[in-house]
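Inverse folding, one chain.
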């Protein structure tokens, strides 16, 4: 499926992205073509997820069980599935300075680089596989916004985010409501909690995301 740049509305571009069935090659090709128009298209659809999830980190109550101080601008943050860098820009505006990012599309990562807020960026990174360039226990905080959504990655990809996040570090995830309704994300997360892989420390059942639909926001601590 191609976008036929210039002929697809903002709404259609967002909607088509959710029909890709998680196929990595199709996702990569789609976002490579969409990169130039992405920011304008999601702005037209009132995409507020990046600002919301960044603010969620900044205002998270400090808990003795959590080793991360959200007031510390030097914490190491991974923006997983960074796209054109909308989340990174929001994090930088809040004062965070050590932000790395990756995306499945090199073109999207190149657009993110233009925002000038990332310490390092990688394209061609598939979250559905082990990410060889990212060692275990590397980040204080991992953020993934707009990735756990229809047509993109399965709930099992959360395990890669757990792997690269430090013990007692935090993982922030947005899940569109429709994704939770049509996937086993909630039951998978419950299983991880029962296995004491993660602990749910904060949950927003229906937060702002995009004009069409809200999202659930999850904050996990790596056990």
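Residues assigned per position:
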């Amino acid at each position: 499926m191609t976008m036929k740049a210039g002929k697809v509305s903002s709404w259609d571009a967002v909607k088509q992205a959710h029909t890709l069935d998680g196929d990595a090659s199709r996702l990569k090709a789609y976002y490579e073509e969409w990169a130039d128009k992405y920011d304008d298209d999601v702005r037209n659809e009132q995409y507020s997820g990046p600002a919301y999830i960044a603010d969620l980190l900044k205002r998270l109550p400090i808990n003795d069980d959590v080793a991360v101080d959200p007031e510390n601008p030097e914490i190491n943050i991974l923006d997983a599935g960074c796209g054109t860098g909308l989340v990174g820009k929001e994090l930088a505006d809040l004062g965070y300075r050590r932000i790395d990012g990756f995306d499945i599309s090199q073109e999207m990562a190149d657009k993110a680089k233009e925002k000038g807020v990332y310490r390092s960026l990688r394209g061609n990174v598939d979250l559905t596989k082990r990410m060889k360039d990212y060692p275990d226990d590397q980040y204080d905080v991992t953020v993934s916004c707009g990735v756990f959504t229809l047509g993109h990655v399965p709930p099992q990809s959360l395990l890669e985010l757990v792997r690269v996040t430090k013990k007692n570090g935090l993982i922030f995830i947005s899940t569109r409501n429709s994704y939770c309704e049509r996937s086993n994300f909630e039951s998978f997360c419950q299983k991880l909690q029962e296995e004491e892989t993660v602990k749910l420390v904060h949950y927003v059942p229906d937060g702002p995301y995009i004009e069409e639909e809200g999202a659930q926001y999850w904050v996990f601590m790596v056990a």
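The radius of gyration is 16 Å. The mean pLDDT is 90.
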